[in-house]
Design goal:
Mean pLDDT: 87
Strand content: under 5%
Helix content: over 70%
Largest sheet: none
Number of helices: 11
Distance between the termini: 33 Å
């Protein structure tokens, strides 16, 4: 059932996290990260940190439902976007890094879902939603980089990825929250002008592009493949333990309008 309030989103995310811990399911990795994002938005609304709290909640709920609906459809063996399919299928892989799991979820949710959500809530006026768009991305960026730093203790050799900074073929290294945000905004501006079949075609074409990016995040080649294998060798292996670590409370200062 689609969430209608931000508290309902929180409740559904908590259920996913609890179930994932109990079943040792990697599906809980992204849910734990996304819980922090949603909780930060909720707290920001409560503290009056957004220009329009009610509008921000509508935007956040619309955005979150894209993920929740995709997950529900996946579990029910119903059609979903290609980018989410790659992300969900990767949770079955014991060889994928925690970082890869998180980036696959972020890839689908930011590069595809965020633009769709922005277009949906804009009412055709993108200027009116830009502040909320930037605010959500500020929160995502702050929390994501913090979580990536936290991963160092569960993946002690993660720094080896730095050996590949000059490898222009590695999307795993090049993935950028800022670039994803900018791309999502451009997509939203294009999508809001579409209707009917043109709208559907635009979303489909965007998903095809993002699905290819997902493939680059999970399928490594050459020396990069060996490096990922080596990192994984020393990474924590118990999904429940990892989810609990990712779900730990953290304090993140939200500065609206900056990212």
């Amino acid at each position: 059932m689609a969430a209608t309030t931000i508290n309902e989103v929180i409740t559904q995310l908590e259920a996913i996290i609890t179930d994932s811990i109990n079943t040792n399911n990697r599906m809980g990795y992204f849910a734990a990260l996304y819980y922090k994002v949603t909780a930060a938005v909720r707290d920001g609304i409560a503290k009056g940190q957004f220009q329009d709290g009610a509008r921000m909640e509508k935007f956040d709920v619309t955005f979150a439902n894209r993920y929740l609906d995709a997950l529900a459809a996946w579990k029910a063996n119903q059609p979903i976007s290609g980018s989410w399919r790659v992300a969900f299928e990767a949770t079955k892989s014991s060889s994928a890094l925690v970082l890869q799991q998180l980036l696959l979820g972020m890839n689908a949710h930011i590069n595809l879902d965020l633009g769709i959500a922005a277009a949906e809530v804009s009412g055709g006026q993108m200027d009116g939603v830009q502040g909320d768009f930037d605010a959500i991305n500020t929160i995502i960026s702050a929390l994501t980089y913090q979580v990536v730093n936290d991963i160092d203790r569960m993946s002690p050799l993660l720094s080896l990825l730095g050996l590949h900074y000059n490898n222009q073929t590695s999307i795993l290294i090049q993935f950028s929250i800022d670039n994803a945000r900018d791309g999502a905004w451009c997509f939203a501006e294009e999508l809001v002008k579409k209707q009917g079949t043109d709208y559907t075609t635009c979303v489909t074409q965007r998903d095809q592009t993002i699905t290819k990016l997902a493939g680059g995040l999970i399928h490594m080649e050459g020396f990069m493949r060996f490096t990922v294998w080596l990192i994984h060798l020393f990474e924590w292996k118990n999904p429940a333990r990892i989810i609990k670590a990712l779900h730990e409370d953290s304090r993140v200062k939200i500065v609206v309008g900056q990212a």
